[in-house]
Amino acid sequence: MILYKFFSLPKNYDNNIDNIKNFRDNVLVCNHPILFNDPFEGILFAKGISEQESLEIEEYKRKVEKQIPSNKKSLFWTENSIVTDKNIVCCFVKDFKDNPFVDLMWAHYANCHFGFCIKFEFSENVEDNFIREEETGKIQIYNLSDNRLHFPSGRSEFKRVQYKGKPQVFRFTKGITYDSMEDFLQIKSCVWRYEHEVRLILHLGDCLGFDLNKYYGVKYDIQCIKGIYWGINTLAEYKKEMIEILESQNCLAPRYSSYISGNSFRIQYKLEEAIKWIE
Description:
Layout: E1 2-7, H1 18-24, E2 27-30, E3 44-47, H2 51-64, H3 73-76, E4 81-82, E5 87-93, H4 102-109, E6 116-121, E7 140-143, E8 148-152, E9 155-160, E10 162-164, E11 169-171, E12 187-189, E13 197-203, E14 216-219, E15 225-230, H5 236-248, E16 255-260, E17 267-271
Parallel strand pairs: 3-11, 10-12, 15-16
Antiparallel strand pairs: 1-6, 2-14, 3-4, 5-13, 6-15, 7-8, 7-14, 9-13, 16-17
């Protein structure tokens, strides 16, 4: 499975940038969707909840309210809304060169072309692509906020996002629902359809949970990288640093520079020759 992911870099060089440190450590950041920029992400809606269940949900909300970003507070307290701490997500783009809206994503997710994009090739067996916990064989999750191990995932999967006209409502009867409560993780408004998004979704078991306001990550096999695309404005210092990282890990992925052609509104790409940096 070929997937692409955009990364932001600043306009001025800084040798202590998280996205470069994560690149060096082969880390992909995974967040609870409540931290995403879409104001509807991270919340699911339910119908048929009993009064007692509503009180229990409200009590839980009050416990985690401080973890909720300000742009999600109004949705968080919307009637019949629920938040769960059992899942984190890493987002990718399915289509790249044939998707004209990729140019928008360079602006949104790569800091106006100062960042970069990685082309990954992942095995359909999700666990094969990432560092696993020895005992369980499940993907090891790292707590990046506290720089320590978290838990191995209970289950992991790649899912294509479904774009719909309204949020899904999960129906309960006597405290039971036969809907998949995890479907909300792959449902977005139709206005986001241009992204052609695929998500890596990591689940935890019943007795475990994620802090909603912390950053987590997984470590991938460096050989999953099949290409690096520089933005139009990516600084030479970052290119040099990233090439050295790739070469130190024996990754021979091709690198592509992006440029503007005078006869098209589309960003163009060309393969770079191997560069030997001279100090």
